[in-house]
Amino acid sequence: MTTEEETLVTAEMLERKGVWGESRVSPPISESDIRKWAIASYWPETPPRLFWDADYAASTTWGGLIAPQDFNPFAWPIDRPPIQSMADRSSRGNRGMNGGQVETFGVPMRPGDVITARSRLKEWNERTTRLGLTLFSFTELEWRNQRDELVKTRISTGIRF
User: Fold this and answer.
1) What is the spatial distance between Cα 151 and Cα 56, in angstroms, rounded to a whole number?
2) How confident is the model over 100-123, as a mean pLDDT?
3) Which long-range contacts (CB under 8 A, 24 or more apart) does 125-129 make?
4) What residues does 138 pair with on adjacent strands?
5) CA-angle at 60, arms to 55 and 63, nearest 5°
6) Domain coordinates of the chain in residue numbers?
7) Burial (0-12, 13-18, 19+ Cβ within 10 Å), 40
8) Distance, CA of 22 to CA of 45 (rounded, Å)
9) Are 159 and 135 in contact (CB under 8 A)?
10) Where are the beta strands (DSSP E) in the chain?
11) Cα 150 from Cα 146, distance rounded (Å)
């Protein structure tokens, strides 16, 4: 860690660390949502029947249709959060990049499920790299269904320098 004078960690980050933000709730997932997502994801190939053929899906260990793991019930929101303006990217700490993400999946999403999402700043570490003082921040996203079953977690890495 660097000295207090040499840090990209903000007061807001210190306040937000480990604190879950406001939840978002998806509309109920429909069979049509799942089918359209699968068609788009597998195009031009035919998607697996598990995602669109209810009779077939009922005969599997899943007992019915499930959504592909990458399905996003928040993909087409009516209300979109405002886009934040870009700060002066040339100033210290305002340049950044996506450091990737790791997803872990729980129960599959099914027709009728309502997904609740929440996120938090999980942790960070700061060190000097060839880019200079660099901050690696880790944001955790959690999705749960209406039965409070874990659907997915994602840890995203943001890099600022």
Assistant:
1) 23
2) 97
3) 125/1, 126/1, 126/2, 126/7, 126/8, 126/9, 127/1, 127/2, 128/2, 129/161
4) 123, 157
5) 75
6) 8-28+95-161, 30-70
7) exposed
8) 38
9) yes
10) 24-25, 96-105, 116-129, 132-144, 150-160
11) 10
Mention the CATH class of domain 8-28+95-161: alpha beta
pTM flag (> 0.70): yes
Residue 127 CA: distances (Å) to CA of 9, 111, 133: 11, 45, 6
CA distance 130 to 64: 52
Looking at the chain, the whole-number percentage of residues with pLDDT higher than 70 is: 89
Environment class of residue 39 by beta-carbon count within 10 Å: exposed (0-12), middle (13-18) or buried (19+)? middle
